[in-house]
């Protein structure tokens, strides 16, 4: 633990609150403070559109960052991320099934189920002798994501009138967010809190599994619970905002450099940083790019970061 970690977390909390306030104020149609008292339209835009959208972006960013932190710790692998290892793709497939066959009803449940199945499939494929080599993990994730992509393409081919909705939703964004979507996203906080309860166990697992067992950690049970919680959080995030990549890859790395590897501080720091990152990404796309899907922006700076990590690992 670094002595400055609590101060950094408090700073991130303040930064998140300021970011959310600014994101609410920003937009293609400017809203002045005075117009809130003189224009019904200004109040409606603020309260019914921007506020829930900013809150949802913060919750989704928080969830993806926490899930990515947990997966990197579990697999002891810096390349692990809900998007890369196929968890997001599984959630996207489940949610798409709900859109095509049930008009969106049960989207959260099916997204969670898809994310859960995809996560545990990659886990069991990549696991060899109690270890998960980075190459096997990446190849397993790519193979599963390719299969899920093919199934998604088939659903889109047969979707008919739902095709346009699926296309935009898969790009990842917060166009049609309303207060009921915020309610759906709130369980992300519950899942994140459940993951945080295992911070001490993850600190011990960072040594090795044998030492963790001697110190009283039920390794396999811990892995299964954390994978389920990570899939739960990712599934809800995907159901709310579509497939948004690389938030769970970037923020844990940056925060680990700043606050250190202690998961008691890394989890809240990564959650706050992920929320800030996605709030600003959504605000920028909404303000300057005619509401371009935010998933495009996160992929633009996330993919080069992933390549950098891969190259650094190869040199090491």
TrEMBL record:
Primary localization class, coarse: membrane
Entry membrane topology: Multi-pass membrane protein
Membrane-traversing stretches: 54-75, 82-103, 109-126, 138-157, 177-199, 225-250, 265-285, 292-310
Source organism superkingdom: Archaea
Keyword Transmembrane included in the entry's annotation: yes
DNA-binding listed as a keyword: no
Compartments where located: Cell membrane
Keywords: Cell membrane, Membrane, Transmembrane, Transmembrane helix, Transport
Alphabetized InterPro entries for the sequence: ABC_BtuC-like (IPR037294), ABC_transptr_permease_BtuC (IPR000522)
Family designation: Belongs to the binding-protein-dependent transport system permease family. FecCD subfamily.
Protein's UniProt name: Iron chelate uptake ABC transporter family permease subunit
Species of the source: Methanoculleus methanifontis
